[in-house]
Design brief:
The structure holds three protein chains of three kinds. Chain A is built from eleven helices and 14 strands. By secondary structure, chain A is of the alpha+beta class. Chain A is globular, with a radius of gyration of 19 Å. Chain A starts with a strand and ends with a helix. Chain B is of the alpha+beta class. In chain B, strands 3-5-1-12-9-10-11 form a seven-stranded mixed beta sheet, with helices on both faces. In chain B, strands 7-15-14-13-8 form a five-stranded mixed beta sheet. Chain B has a three-stranded antiparallel beta sheet with strand order 4-2-6. Chain B starts with about 30 loop residues before the first helix and ends in a 5-residue tail after the last helix. A five-stranded mixed beta sheet of chain C has the order 2-1-5-3-4, sandwiched between helices. Chain C has helices spanning about 25-30, 85-95, 105-115, 125-130, 140-159, and strands spanning about 1-10, 10-20, 50-55, 55-60, 70-75. By secondary structure, chain C is an alpha+beta fold. Chain C has two domains: about 1-80, Ubiquitin-like (UB roll); about 85-160, DNA polymerase, domain 1 (Orthogonal Bundle), CATH 1.10.150.120. The chains are: A alpha+beta, B alpha+beta, C alpha+beta. Chains in contact: A-B, A-C, B-C. The interface of B and C includes residues 26, 37, 128, 264 and 293 of B.
Chain lengths: ~270, ~525, ~160
């Protein structure tokens, strides 16, 4: 079978081709798709590419940040206005992978990958989708829950509110450093009011089928200070509602055991990649 | 940086170290940094075809049927290779030195015995065409009960893995299901010990994961000959194995080893050459057979997992008086090199220590896992992990410093080893002393003064008698450049007060090898047969 | 379907036809004939096939070849200038930074990507730069030392 490669200068055209071409897959950075092609995966017959400048655009100077789905981890690392996301981008692969890996691609990465999606989940991101319907927006949490069933839909970008200074934290736990696949990752948005947490959002990577919110921990953190006794209740329920799996990197049991440890460190301020 | 402690054993050295201690550039480093070192895959041939293999998804299953008709018609496919096409479809690597029975097929025909076992091969004009054709092959399986644990495999009623060895153990000398070491009477000695520690150690299989995967390219040459570029670490093993499996004369094969892109033992098993050559013969074209990374992990042999039980008995003075070892090598579904690993393990017990009562049973066990092979000191390294963990536990139990404990129990020149060989050129004590010094690890003066050269056999209170003088004389002393020069001929150790235990019967000489087509006048390795070539 | 691809390779123009959907590693080795690029996994995970595309490090095995049209590709074949080795190559030789040599081309290109952008990296930056390259032989220390040596010799040269 020969593979067809089709390149479009408009995201809308790329989206149409994605739903109409046989065995079509969208090419973000290629780090996932090219592996499938190299392994002669029969599900990939057509590669759809987009050269639309909107796809790689970063708009970060205001309170609302927009990232085109084709923005690479390297591009994020090169942008000073996105410094709060640098620990996340730096945790994805090595330098060569970061030059290729995209925001959009990370949304579709299978467990235990998807660390950038985990961060976006804590940032309450909205994804913009293009398909037969034109364009629409969907909260990332909903998108992740239904992404296997979403069919040939193209994610064109993500948007989220710029977090308050120093309110965003991220940690990735790996066996191999500096690069490694997640045992788990935790992203936390920790806004404070009068020294107490107000409206925290916590997201976990590699603790479920997709990145998920740690809602039990969020509720237990509400109104507490970020000190040893304040974070205690949240740490106690850290893994509630998660369903980690056994894989080559770690067992589900191990992930459940260490999640509270790393959440505690992140909340008390030891949090860095 | 490199410090040469020539003060140690100074009277034994002639200071002729011309290379050691001086930096010398690797002869291939220029090739490495320019990307021009020739790995097997850095050769291209017009019309080269690609061989890919269909592999078992089951750990143990009967193959009910194979339908490759759609695959045969797929675009780019030149030939399908089936079990019936392989001229000699049962082999074991060490048959080349008459060690072990042929047990492993190149392509499975009726039963698959591990996940990843090769079933059929497809030769096509591109890797992609071959992979796509593989997806069209329909195989139906009847899964069979499988066994994955070495001790489970030895229980009565366990699934039988390998029909050549139906009881799931390799056979030594045609009748023994394990390697046995006996010296003194460990069980009796335990009863007289002050401290007994009994532990179990377990390691997992370890994948070599070389950055270059296994592969080879077979190229028809002239006059019925084939040139083979290969990643192998074991060029002559691979050539002779390929000749045997293809029922060819070895002089029909011209093997050219590439720079090996990482081997570590994972490129000694002749994994790709025999079928590459067969494919070249059947198509008349050059054929590359290259393992993907996934195949390297799944099908490429790992270092075999080992389970080791060690029971040690100590007296209050810190001397280990008895050591009992039971070790199981997980060979996976076929022998490859595990048979030899178990021999090396048995030869290494009880470690570099003088212990008067040693009892060991070492098994090479078959399970439905990927067949295991050599890796960096195989047979010995895992055992050393277990022994040294045990030594630390013993030291802790008796309240001794772990380095002093090792120095106390270390073998010394003249000591009788459990294998009835005299210990010579011992240096563990000196190594431990220097290591302690370098690590700023304090040890007592008494231990700093100990030496491998004294405190040996005569001083050990419990040592059983040495073997009879006549046998001792028959073992001609080895004269290596750094051998200790003795003033007098070696004396047998003085008899202790107890009557000497009768030595166990000598291992029987192996039966003369039945003549085979590919007996190449192979030498006998004494470590394999347990006898010394006189 | 064969598709035309044009790019520069180590400063020279290259124009080839390759199967649509081919990765850059296979095109470089099989079609262009640059065998100095090595392949280890074809999954993008080992870094052995690291090349530079417009100065940025990329793993060629998961790079779509036709997306490189018009770009500047660099491999280890282009490191030396005639008989003169690149300082990185000399440093690797002097520091015993290669044993089997299979990861070496990828390591050199990852190091070049670093030093071209950051001529005086810290040790941490060197470690991060080769963070996507697996070596099974050396334990990485000689490689890190070699890259630091090369950066120092560069700064001596320009001083």
């Amino acid at each position: 079978m020969t593979i067809a490669v089709k390149t479009f200068s408009r995201l809308g055209e790329a989206a149409s081709a994605l739903s109409s071409e046989r065995g079509a897959r969208f090419f973000g950075g290629g780090t996932i798709l090219m592996r499938m092609v190299n392994e002669a995966d029969p599900n990939v017959a057509t590669i759809i590419r987009a050269t639309d400048p909107a796809f790689t655009r970063i708009s970060a100077s205001s309170g609302r940040i927009e990232l085109g789905a084709g923005v690479t981890m390297a591009a994020i690392l090169a942008d000073r206005e996105l410094s709060f996301l640098h620990p996340v981008a730096r945790a994805v692969g090595g330098p060569a992978i970061r030059e290729a890996a995209t925001v959009g691609g990370n949304l579709f990465a299978q467990n235990p990958y998807g660390d950038f999606a985990t961060a976006l989940l804590a940032l309450d991101a909205i994804v913009t989708l293009a398909g037969g319907f034109g364009q629409r927006e969907q909260p990332l949490e909903e998108f992740l829950a239904s992404r296997e069933r979403s069919g040939a839909i193209l994610v064109t970008g993500v948007a989220f509110k710029r977090p308050a200074a120093d309110a965003f934290r991220f940690t990735k736990v790996t066996r191999v450093r500096p690069k490694g696949i997640s045992v788990l990752s935790i992203a936390a948005y920790l806004p404070m009011a009068s020294g107490r947490i107000s409206g925290a959002r916590i997201a976990y990577g590699a603790m479920d089928r997709t990145p998920v919110r740690g809602k039990a921990a969020e509720r237990a953190l509400e109104g507490h200070a970020l000190d040893a006794s304040g974070v205690g209740p949240a740490v106690a329920v850290a893994a509630d509602g998660t369903s980690p799996v056994d894989d080559a990197i770690a067992s589900a049991w191990w992930r459940r055991e260490i999640l509270p440890v790393h959440l505690r460190r992140l909340l008390l301020g030891a949090g860095h990649v | 940086m490199l410090e040469l402690r020539k003060d140690i054993f100074a009277d034994e050295r002639d200071d002729n170290l011309k290379e050691i201690g001086k930096p010398t550039a690797r002869q291939d480093i220029l090739g490495h940094v320019t990307g021009t070192s020739p790995y097997y895959d850095d050769h291209r041939f017009a019309g080269m075809l690609h061989l890919k293999i269909l592999r078992s998804p089951h750990a143990h299953a009967r193959i009910r049927s194979i339908d490759d008709s759609a695959a045969a018609r797929a675009p780019g496919v030149k030939r399908i290779i089936r079990a019936a096409d392989v001229p000699v479809n049962l082999n074991t690597l060490l048959s080349l030195i008459q060690f072990g029975k042929d047990d492993e097929p190149s392509l499975a025909s009726d039963v698959v015995r591990y996940k990843g076992e090769p079933i059929i091969g497809i030769v096509a004009t591109s890797e992609r065409a071959a992979q796509e054709a593989l997806a069209l092959v329909r195989v139906s399986y009847d899964p069979l009960p499988a066994v994955f644990d070495v001790e489970e495999a030895l229980k009565p009623g366990a699934a039988s893995v390998n029909p050549t060895y139906p009881k799931n153990t390799f056979e030594y000398y045609g009748k023994y299901d394990h390697q046995k070491l006996r010296y003194g009477d460990a069980d009796a000695a335990f009863a007289k010990c002050d401290v007994v520690i009994d532990e179990r150690y377990q390691m997992s299989p370890i994948e070599h994961a070389p950055t270059e995967t296994n592969g080879s390219i077979a190229v028809p040459d002239t006059n019925g000959r084939f040139v083979v570029h290969t990643s192998t670490q074991a060029l002559f093993f691979s050539l002779d194995t390929s000749a045997k499996i293809n029922a060819m004369q070895s002089n029909q094969l011209h093997f050219i080893g590439g720079t090996v892109g990482g081997g570590f033992g994972g490129k000694v098993d002749t994994l790709t050459e025999p079928l590459a050559i067969l494919a070249a013969r059947l198509t008349g074209a050059p054929v590359r057979h290259r393992l993907s990374r996934h195949e390297e992990m799944q099908f490429g042999s790992p270092r075999g997992a080992e389970r080791i039980y060690i029971k040690d008995g100590m007296t209050r003075d810190g001397r280990i008086v008895a050591r009992k070892v039971r070790a199981y090598f997980d060979s996976g579904a076929y022998t490859r090199l595990s048979s030899y690993a178990a021999v090396k393990c048995a030869a290494h017990i009880p470690g570099p220590y003088t212990i008067p009562n040693v009892h060991a049973d070492v098994y090479c066990v078959f399970t439905n896992r990927t067949p295991a092979t050599a890796m960096r000191g195989f047979g010995v390294t895992a055992l050393d992990f277990a022994l040294e963990c045990q030594m630390d536990k013993l030291a802790t139990a008796i309240g001794m410093d772990p380095i002093e404990f090792r120095i106390l129990n270390a073998y010394r020149d003249g000591d009788m080893k459990a294998h009835r060989r005299e210990a010579k050129n011992c240096a563990l004590i000196e190594c431990a002393q220097v290591a302690a010094e370098k690590a700023n690890w304090p040890i007592r003066e008494e231990y700093k003064r100990m030496s491998s050269r004294n405190g040996g056999a005569a001083a050990a209170p419990h040592a059983p008698a040495a073997i009879a003088p006549s046998r001792q004389a028959a073992a001609a002393p080895q004269r290596a450049p750094y051998d200790r020069v003795s003033a007098a001929p070696t004396q047998p150790a003085p008899s202790p007060t107890q009557p000497a235990p009768s030595p166990p019967p000598r291992a029987p000489q192996p039966a003369p090898a039945a003549p085979t087509g590919s007996s190449h006048g192979a030498p006998r390795f004494s470590s394999v047969f347990g006898t010394r070539r006189r | 379907m064969r598709t035309p691809i044009q790019f520069t390779l180590n400063g020279e123009d290259v124009a080839v036809f390759a199967e649509s959907g081919s990765n850059l590693l296979d095109v470089l080795r099989e079609t262009v004939g640059d065998l100095t690029v090595k392949g280890g996994c074809w999954q993008g995970t080992c870094g052995v096939c690291t090349v530079l595309i417009d100065g940025a490090p990329r793993v060629a095995c998961v790079t779509l070849a036709e997306a490189c049209a018009g770009r500047s590709v660099e491999t280890v074949a282009g490191l030396r200038r005639g008989p003169d080795l690149h300082p990185l190559q000399t440093a690797f030789m002097e520091r015993f930074a290669a044993q089997c040599g299979y990861c070496t081309p990828g390591m050199l290109m990852a190091a070049k990507a670093l030093l071209d952008r950051n001529p005086a990296p810290s040790r941490e930056e060197v470690v991060d730069a080769i963070g996507g390259n697996i070596c099974r032989c050396t334990g990485y220390e000689p490689i890190i030392e070699a890259i630091l040596d090369a950066s120092r010799s560069n700064s001596r040269r320009s001083a």
